[in-house]
Amino acid sequence: MDATPSPAVSRRQPWLWLAAAALLLPMLAACGKGEQSQAAVPQGNPPPAIPVTVVRASPQSIPIALDVVGQTEGSKEVEVRARVGGILQKRLYSEGATVRAGQPLFQIDRAPYEIALEQAKAALAQERARSAQAQREADRLKPLVEQRAVSRKEYDDATSTQQLSQASQQQFAARVREAELNLSYTLVTAPVPGISGRAEHSEGSLITTDANGSLLTTINQLNPMYVRFSVSESDLAKMPGGRLATGVPVDVKLSMPDGTPYPGKGRLNFTGAVIDPKLGTQQLRAEFDNPKGELLPGQFVRVKITAGQRNNVFLVPQVAVMQTEKGYFVFVVDAGNKAEIRPVQVGDWVGSDWTVLSGLNTGDRVVADNLLKVRPGVAVAPTEAKVAAAGDTPAVNSGANPASATGGVATGASAAGGASKGSGSSGTGANDASGKSGPGALNAPGPAAATTPTAAR
Fold first, then answer.
1. What pTM value is reported for the model?
2. Which has the closest alpha carbon to 331: 368, 383, 373?
3. Which residue from 45, 219, 275, 385 has the least number of CB within 10 angstroms?
4. Is residue 319 within 8 Å of residue 443, measured between CB atoms?
């Protein structure tokens, strides 16, 4: 086929070139103006210094504390059980009332045990009579055997009968004592003082002596009160000597379920000898005086254990500490008012602060805000903030959940007033590694590099 274009198409080609040129000329003119405007911008002026708030590092001594959840239990939890079977005739106490030791609680039918006691006494009297007869027979034969009036065998038989009768007499006396005990067991009394539980059987029920039918009620002794709790192996490593023992002086305090501090201090009275291989925890128990009965068995409470103190550590705001895949770091201001990165080793949380164990020196100025704009080597305009004294800071909370602390650093979500998160928006004063920041947000450089406290590269 002939590939030569038709005359009509050839006549339209000049018009197409003219239209394309008309479109390109304005675009070229705009690019030229942009280059001229960029060339007009001065290149020699340095950027202004970034205003930041700094906290001056100073060594402090802080107490070492653990905050764990515990459960209360009575110092004595007694099951009141029937020792003899029979029909339950009376309940002699008010359920849930305080009872004293020896107070009557239940009355079981006495009649069968009274009859058994009389039978045992009659058998004992009968055996005593036999024993007396055997004794008289032995005494009668003794002079006769000396005179050879009777055989020696007759005398020996009489003596043996008398001895067997004395042994039987002791046996029947024991049966009488047993019958007396069984009769006394029909009146069930409180073995210890405390708070009584509900009755397991009503009047008229048949009480048996097996495990299922003998339980009548329970008694809990509430003063003193025990609190059981567990401490993880990692938290034990933070304690002086790496362990807690009953002989080690510790300060044990308690908070009620509503957060109210419980008056008075406790004392450790039991520490487990082994670490639970499944949970990696050590079982402990503390004892608290409970004269007013404020603590009840089964309550969940918070236990705070303070043991010793950690010296020469630094406290910096949580929002100032950031983390990458290589570890934690902070920005410090050098003598020329320029920011530099300082790797640090962090410890526990103390209120809204991190405990820095190493990496800082006395007098270092740690940047505490505007972190998104700060870069290594950037000039800053520092304003020093006042740091609370060591005595004004709360104890180290090794067992607390960091995400629950106000002003803390949470994983993936920000706590109110100073938490950080990996993405999304943060609350007031929060540190946001990527995304939007609220009013007064602390800015971290670069993209988020971790999902744990205040991440940044």
1. 0.58
2. 368
3. 45
4. no
State whether 207 and 94 are in the same domain.
Answer: yes
- 377-403: average pLDDT: 58
Residues 367 and 338 sit within 8 Å (Cβ to Cβ) = no
Classify residue 16: in a domain, yes or no.
no
Please write the tens of the pLDDT for every residue from 141-154. Answer: 888 878 888 888 88
DSSP bridge partners of 327: 324
Torsion (CA) 75, 299, 308, 251 in degrees, nearest 10: -50
Q: Find the DSSP H helices in 57-196.
A: 111-146, 152-185
List Cα–Cα distances, 435 to 50, 123, 290, 445, in angstroms: 20, 97, 52, 12
Name which residue leads in pLDDT, 426 or 268: 268
Shared-domain flag, residues 320 and 379:
yes
Number of independent structural domains in the chain = 4
* The last residue of a domain, from among 185, 204, 234: 185
- 232-279 residue pLDDT tens: 888 888 777 777 766 667 889 999 888 899 988 888 888 888 888 888
- Is residue 246 within 8 A of residue 287, CB to CB? The reply is no
pLDDT tens sequence across 41-57: 455 577 888 899 999 98
In 175-214 the beta strands, taken as DSSP E runs, fall at 187-189, 194-196, 206-207
Q: Please give the Cα distance from 175 to 100 (Å, whole number).
A: 31
Are residues 457 and 422 in contact, defined by beta-carbon separation less than 8 angstroms?
A: no
Domain housing 301? 68-73+220-308
Q: CATH number of the domain that 131 lies in?
A: 1.10.287.470
C-beta neighbour count of 313 within 10 angstroms: 22
Over residues 408-413, the mean pLDDT reads 34
